[in-house]
């Protein structure tokens, strides 16, 4: 998994080749051993143990970078993105 950004202890990652296996564009979010999968539309895709604040931060970051994330999902050309301040 490629780390796209880190902020407030949260790492946001995307699998290289994920598009080939999953139909829903998404990112993986981790923080201090907690984990979640969030679609680019902001929906939690599977069970998570992220706190509500971590999910809110991840969703806010995704909304700020939606166009870039969607492009990365489609092209598989990954770049680091700015953190959430």
Can you characterise this structure?
This protein is α+β, with helices and mostly antiparallel strands. It has 3 helices and 4 strands. The chain has helices at 18-21, 52-64, 66-75; strands at residues 2-7, 10-14, 26-31, 34-39. It has a 4-stranded antiparallel sheet, with helices on one face. Strand 3 and strand 4 form a beta hairpin. The longest helix is centred in the C-terminal third of the chain and has 13 residues, at 52-64. The radius of gyration is 12 Å and the shape is globular.
For the structure shown, list the relevant keywords:
single chain, 85 residues, alpha+beta, four-stranded antiparallel beta sheet, 3 helices
**What string gives the helices and strands in order?**
EEHEEHH
Tally of helical segments? 3
Largest pleated sheet: 4 strands, antiparallel
Number of strands: 4
Mean pLDDT: 92
End-to-end distance: 23 Å
Which strand-content bin applies to the residues?
Answer: 25-35%
Rough outline = globular
Oligomeric status of the shown chains? single chain
State the share of residues found in helices, binned by percent: 25-40%
Q: Structural class of the secondary structure composition?
A: alpha+beta
Low-pLDDT residue intervals, each spanning 5 or more residues: none
């Amino acid at each position: 998994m490629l780390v796209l950004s880190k902020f407030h202890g949260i790492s946001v990652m995307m699998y290289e080749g994920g598009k080939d296996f999953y139909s829903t564009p998404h990112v993986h979010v981790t923080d201090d051993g907690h984990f979640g999968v969030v679609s680019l539309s902001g929906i939690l895709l599977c069970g998570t143990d992220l706190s509500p604040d971590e999910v809110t931060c991840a969703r806010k970051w995704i909304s700020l970078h939606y166009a870039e994330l969607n492009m990365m999902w489609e092209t598989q050309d990954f770049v680091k993105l700015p953190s959430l301040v």
